[in-house]
From TrEMBL:
Pfam families: WHD_GTF3C1_N. One of its GO terms (biological process) is transcription initiation at RNA polymerase III promoter. GO terms for molecular function: DNA binding. This is General transcription factor 3C polypeptide 1 winged-helix domain-containing protein. Residues 1-101 form the General transcription factor 3C polypeptide 1 winged-helix domain.
Length: 125
């Protein structure tokens, strides 16, 4: 199950700031599910979702018309799928996914173009 949670965390990070809709998580994890020989069902959906939500670096968000995130009250995976909830990684975790571990400690910053380029490379893996 740890491999499945790790794969889910990678998928959320690879989507960067918009995050990943909960409904898109399961198709994205198809390869990890097949490798672990687990059938996709409510129990298999609940375990990695609950562990992701428990992480302080992942939050659930719903997007309103103006693009502002709002926190959903319900943290159940089936309810999250029905309500269109997204999994969003923190900025620090997204930077770590891009191997930018020490950027917040440096005097210079990446330009917008440089950061966008790194995000394209990260998303393509």
């Amino acid at each position: 199950m740890d491999e499945l949670v790790s794969a889910a965390l990678e998928e959320v990070c690879a989507r960067f700031s918009p995050g990943l809709p909960v409904t898109d998580l399961w198709p994205a994890l198809r390869g990890a599910l097949e490798a672990s020989d687990l059938p996709l069902g409510p129990t298999v959906k609940h375990a990695p979702s609950a562990r992701l939500i428990a992480l302080l670096v992942i939050r659930l968000a719903m997007w309103e018309g103006n693009g502002a995130p709002i926190e959903p009250a319900e943290k159940d995976v089936e309810e999250a799928e029905r309500r269109g909830v997204w999994l969003v990684a923190s900025a620090t975790l997204r930077d770590n996914f891009l191997r930018m571990y020490h950027c917040r400690f440096t005097k210079s910053e990446l330009s917008v173009v440089q950061k966008a380029t790194l995000e394209c490379v990260g998303a393509s893996r």
